Amino acid sequence: MWKDLLEIVRKDPCPPKQALEVIEYLKRGAKARFYADENFPSAATELLRSKGASVRTAVEANMLGLPDEAHAAYALKHRTILLSCDRDYLNNGRFPLISCPAIFVFQFDSGTGEEMRLAFRCLDPVFSTPQFFDKWCKVDASVHEWTKSYRSLDGATSRERHRIHEGKHQLWIEEYSVDGTRN
Questions:
Q1: Residues facing residue 176 across a β-bridge
Q2: Whether 84 contacts 103, CB under 8 Å
Q3: Domain limits for position 72
């Protein structure tokens, strides 16, 4: 069932220590830095740059023709967020969360600027708090919704589905019966 994210946060706010950490990160004014592999469209790169994003491309990094693992290693070494349209990066066998950079894989449908803008909504938290997106995170983003998989410091992994519906950020919440089965 889709639920409004603001309502979820109001009912269950984060602990004060965590809230202070976020405020401190916001004060630092850090900027997100991206690395676009050769499968990421140049029009998408230019759209991000027009929004003030720092994006280095595979061409600029002299990484054309190299395997996906080399692109992931480059992004991790340079502490950038890897942008791609190559769904191979979502394979946790090849790219486990524990050893990969933050990776955002996009599906732009026909690739219009409007579709790119819609898919880029998943990047909003990255622009405001880039420190939380240096590694251990994968996002599978389309025009309509995105799925985020991430690893916490304690080793736990989580998966969330998000969308923007009627102007509201929503999160998919599984509903379970008393006996523990899904409704």
A1: 182
A2: yes
A3: 28-154
Asked whether residue 87 is assigned to any structural domain, the reply reads yes
Residue 83 lies in a domain: yes
Tokens of 51: 């929004």
pLDDT tens string 153-164: 888 899 999 999
CA angle in degrees (0–180, nearest 5) for 151-135-25: 95
User: What integer best gives the mean pLDDT of the chain?
Assistant: 89
Quote the CA–CA distance of 57 and 55 in Å, as a whole number: 6
pLDDT digits (tens, 9 = 90+) for 27-58: 777 788 999 999 999 999 999 999 999 999 99
Burial 134-155 (b: 16+ CB within 10 A, else e): bbbbbbbbbbebbbbbbbeeee
Q: What is the pLDDT of residue 104?
A: 98
Is 21 part of a structural domain of the chain?
A: no
State how many domains the chain has: 1
pTM: 0.87
DSSP 102-170: -EEEE--TT--HHHHHHHGGGGHHHHH-GGGGSBSEEEEE-SSEEEEEEE-TTS-EEEEEEEEETTEEE
Distance (Å, whole) CA 109 – CA 143 = 7
In a domain, 54, yes or no: yes
